[in-house]
Design a protein that fits this description.
- The chain has a domain at 289-521: Aldehyde Dehydrogenase, Chain A, domain 2, CATH 3.40.309.
- 42% of the residues lie in helices and 15% in strands.
- The chain has 21 helices and 18 strands.
- Strand 12 (387-390), helix 15 (400-403) and strand 13 form a beta-alpha-beta unit.
- The mean pLDDT is 96.
């Protein structure tokens, strides 16, 4: 059993007087300067951040893997590039390019569905995308009745409208290191707000690295970073200088901020009396389902998607809001039992990881007390938890595992009473829409022959009916998050008193107005091994090279990146 070193020492909380001073500088100096800054000047700042981010990328990934107890040089180390520095670098580049295009970069394609709803293709944008992500497309569906416009803020400014901006308190997530800086970028570029970022205590040791990566924004007075727990967080959210709040976390934390904690918070919520009168955007997790559409799959195809589903859980030790939580299958599918057995086999062969989130043990005990369960994977550390499959989870309304998100390495299999694809989809779509908590992300795995048999219009309607902000077809919704051209956030329409997966979106690299959902589609089987497969043999080199590539894309660099990918 491996004895992993302890994580780096925590950072002391920022004194409240310093927090006040930082907020005062942002409000009185940074905000007015930022709102007057031209798109060209903003793009220049972001391009400078690309260089400072690249300079600290290796340190960033190394601290990230140490915080999570991942061995140096292992797959977890590679994930800290792929889910950390790479995503941030793409976000910086896409926003810089969007600003250089005046807030409206060219769309590869757009069209209207039969009912009039607009769809904008945002990926691939060119030949390099098509080579590095062969067969992958990203479409943003626009809210019904709206047009596929871009960069609303910059259109208003060009029309002479004076924008007051604001000061946003960004409460950083603790699971993926790219989330806090990317949330900051969205608030700056899309919402015209300067930011005070409070690092999460789970990964606060990355704060000083992020400060160096974003030094151009900090030095110019548009971003400040603070540290601390509940006391600092409450001081910030309640501060008079803070005009809006963005949180990536849990619905419980969101409600405590808006309505207040404990019984008083419950009373405020019932009365519709929030304790704060501030705009709030949020991304709050999901019991993310994987709809496995029945079809005539070969053994090779079953093996491939079992690897993919196991990776959807094991990536980042299960601490992902889009981690696979619910594998929804047709009870009468001829391959149903074989597929479940293969997923279990893959998880058994996947080394367990340090369960680095402070709540993990308690969460695991809560869920395993509710259900019989199967524990998989050789334990690699005393701080590790087994990959765990809950047994006997039904599709009945109110089932515990359907309503509660298991924030650790837990998933469930659920059967729909169906045998063929059409019947399955007729029942599975309303099931995940109405009985499964959350609307952040959903995965759909469908064989191309099955899709052709159903017909384009029928499949298009399935996608339309899924009330999720991110839909991934034949791939993991981690690609919705990491590719950055897509939007990332809940399906629109959640009121504050029933928030589920949250309000608003982030990422949105091409500045699409009025997004409803992002749909990422990949080939049924991809070659080489996708980077998000946790048995990828070369994700560390690939993550490093992709981060460097995004800092300065060039067709001349493509062969080296492609070679690293094929080593996977």
């Amino acid at each position: 059993m491996t004895d992993y070193p302890p994580p780096p020492k925590p950072i002391p909380p920022t004194p409240l007087a310093q927090v006040d001073a930082k907020l005062e500088r942002l409000a009185s100096e940074g905000r007015p300067r930022w709102t007057e800054l031209t798109t060209r000047a903003r793009a220049q700042l972001l391009r400078r951040c690309m260089q400072t981010t690249l300079a600290v990328a290796d340190e960033w990934a190394d601290i990230g893997r140490a915080l999570k107890g991942y061995p140096k040089g292992g797959n977890g180390h590679g994930e800290e590039y792929l889910g950390g520095t790479l995503a941030v670098m793409r976000n910086l580049r896409l926003f810089a390019e969007a600003l250089e295009a005046g807030g409206a970069p060219k769309l590869p394609k757009k069209w209207q569905r039969a009912d009039g709803q607009w769809v904008a293709r945002v990926f691939p944008q060119g030949a390099i995308d098509r080579v590095l992500f062969t067969g992958v497309t990203v479409d943003i569906w626009i809210e019904p009745g709206e047009q596929p416009t871009q960069g609303a803020l910059y259109r208003r400014k060009r029309a002479g409208e004076r924008c007051e901006g604001g000061v946003c308190a960004v409460l950083g997530a603790g699971n993926q290191s790219s989330i806090p800086p990317m949330d900051v970028l969205y608030k700056l570029v899309v919402d015209d707000e300067v930011c005070l970022l409070k690092m999460n205590p789970v990964n606060e040791q990355l704060g000083p690295v992020i400060e160096r990566a974003f030094a151009p924004l900090i030095d110019a007075g548009y971003l400040e970073v603070v540290y601390g727990g509940l006391e600092v967080g409450k001081h910030i959210t309640d501060h008079a200088r803070v005009t809006s709040i963005h949180i990536t976390g849990s619905a419980k934390t969101h409600d405590a901020i808006i309505w207040g904690p404990g019984p008083q918070g419950d009373e405020n919520k019932k009365a519709g009396a929030p304790r704060l009168d501030k705009a709030i955007t949020s991304e709050l997790g999901c019991v993310s389902p994987v709809l496995v559409v029945p079809g005539a799959w070969s053994e090779k195809q079953l093996q491939y998607h079992a690897r993919q589903v196991a990776s959807m859980l094991a990536y980042n030790c299960g601490f992902n809001c889009n981690g696979a939580r619910l594998i929804v299958m047709a009870k009468g599918w001829e391959h149903r039992d074989r597929f479940e057995a293969l997923v279990k086999q893959r998880l058994s062969a996947t080394p367990t990881r340090v369960a680095y989130y402070p709540t993990a043990q308690r969460t695991w005990e809560t869920f395993t007390a509710e259900y019989e369960h199967t524990e998989l994977g050789a334990k690699t550390s005393e701080r590790a938890l087994p990959w765990t499959l809950l047994e006997g989870v039904s599709a009945e309304d109110g089932e515990f595992a359907l309503r509660e998100e298991p924030w650790c390495g837990i998933m469930s299999f659920v059967d729909i009473d169906a045998s063929e694809a059409g019947e399955f989809l007729d029942k599975a779509v309303p099931f995940v829409n109405d009985k499964v908590w959350g609307t952040l992300s959903c995965n759909l795995i469908i064989h191309p022959k099955t899709e052709r048999a159903l017909g384009k219009q029928r499949v298009d309607q399935v996608i339309a009916d899924l009330r999720y902000g991110g839909v991934a077809i034949n791939c993991w919704s981690g690609l919705n998050y990491g590719i950055v051209n897509a939007t990332w956030g809940a399906f629109p329409g959640h009121p504050l008193d029933d928030i589920e997966s949250g309000q608003g979106v982030v990422h949105n690299g091409l500045l699409i107005d009025h997004p409803q959902k992002s749909v990422v589609r990949a080939p049924f089987m991809m070659t080489p091994t996708p980077a998000w497969f946790t048995d990828h043999q070369n994700n560390l080199e690939l993550g490093r090279l992709m981060t460097e590539f995004e800092a300065a894309p060039s067709v001349l660099k493509v062969p080296r990146v492609a070679l690293a990918a094929f080593k996977g």
